[in-house]
Amino acid sequence: MFLSASSIIGKEIDSVLLLISGICIALFAVIIFITLYFVIKYSRERNPNPTDIEGNPPLEIGWTVLSIVLVLFMFYWGWTGYRKIKTEVPKDAFVVKATAQQWLWSFDYENGKHTNVLNLPVNRPVKVTLNSRDVIHGFYIPTFRIKQDVVPGAEKYIWFTPDEEGTYDLFCTQYCGLGHSGMLSKAVVMSGEKFQEWYSGRTEVPKVALAAKSIEVMVEEGKELYRTKGCIACHTIDGTKLVGPSWKGIWGSRVQVISAGEQREVLVDEEYIHRSEFEPQADVVVGYPPVMPPQKGLLTEEEIKAITEYIKTLK
Ligand SMILES: [Cu+2]
Fold it and tell me: Are residues 184 and 152 part of one domain?
């Protein structure tokens, strides 16, 4: 029929919507039918002398009461679902802290895991607490049928139970600045075992192995980080200007930057890329706004190296 929901509450919301739409379509058909019937029955040809129609109390009371009951029934069904979303968070809900900032999402788990995609176990209630580092953002996962504004300084949350495994879109729904349309992420719903394996860290590459990584592996990782860490929202790889300069061909080039109010020329090398990640405001490329969020705490040294290797390949 249409794209079905992938959460328990989502399926309930869909059935309420379907029921209300069904009632509306049925009423519409009845009203149109009766209207046409009277237009024909009382046309001038069939009814040359206008008929004086008196009121009909039983009929009038009947449709008034019936309409009230119908509207209250729809309200009740919608209200109970809404109340569920807003209040009844199950005690055993899995808690994830989501942080929105211009222009990326990050997620913190109770055991210290930190990601840019929302990893979740299937069939377990999840409570996502919502925090903003800057402006108002909107947390929206269409397939779960949930949406909640993320307001700086306010404690907001949303909860749901994903009941189908898969990878789903996660959007920001409040216009939050130049990179808004690129503020995308994913919700990945996995089986309980698969999730536990990831959550307990058994699938992670041990730290010692990192030193031995080949350049090819690092380039691939950099490419992945470019998308998952939100770089893609502001930097293109095809030369197009976006909020920030394109990465195409910058490696080894000389760029004009503003450093502490003064213009100077710098070489794009490892040191410059590192500084641009951790202190983006230190050197701002001429012609671009100083809006990049510092990546300290969001990117590790290894990840910056991987991104640097990736940038080197963008000739
Ligand atoms: Cu946003």
Answer: yes
189 alpha carbon to ligand 1 midpoint, in Å?
Answer: 22
Distance 154 CA to ligand 1 centre (A): 16
| Same domain membership, residue 101 and residue 51 | no
Taking the model in full, what pTM does it have? 0.67
Burial of 3 (0-12, 13-18, 19+ CB in 10 A): exposed
Q: From ligand 1's centre to the CA of 184, what distance in Å?
A: 9
Token output for 18: 């379907």
Helix (H, G, I), strand (E, B) or coil at 206: coil
In one-letter notation, the amino acid at residue 87 is T
Domain end marker among 199, 220, 250:
199
CB 124 within 8 Å of CB 94: yes
Q: Which tokens sit at 65?
A: 């009461």
Rounded distance from Cα 174 to ligand 1 centre (Å): 6
For 130-156, write each residue's pLDDT tens digit: 999 889 999 999 999 999 999 999 989
In sequence order, what DSSP letters do the residues of 207-237 get, joined into one string? GGGGGG--HHHHHHHHHHHHHHTSGGGT--S
Ligand 1 centre distance from Cα of residue 40 (Å): 56
Distance 183 CA to ligand 1 centre (A): 6
| Distances, alpha carbon 34 to alpha carbons 24, 43, 57, 70, 232, in Å | 15, 14, 19, 19, 57
Band (212; pLDDT cuts 50, 70, 90) = low
* Each residue's pLDDT tens digit, 252-284: 889 898 888 888 888 898 888 888 888 888 888
Tell me: pLDDT of 3 over 70. yes
For residue 143, report the distance from its CA to the centre of ligand 1, in Å. 19
User: Domain containing 154 — which CATH number?
Assistant: 2.60.40.420
- The Å distance, Cα 150 to ligand 1 centre, comes to 9
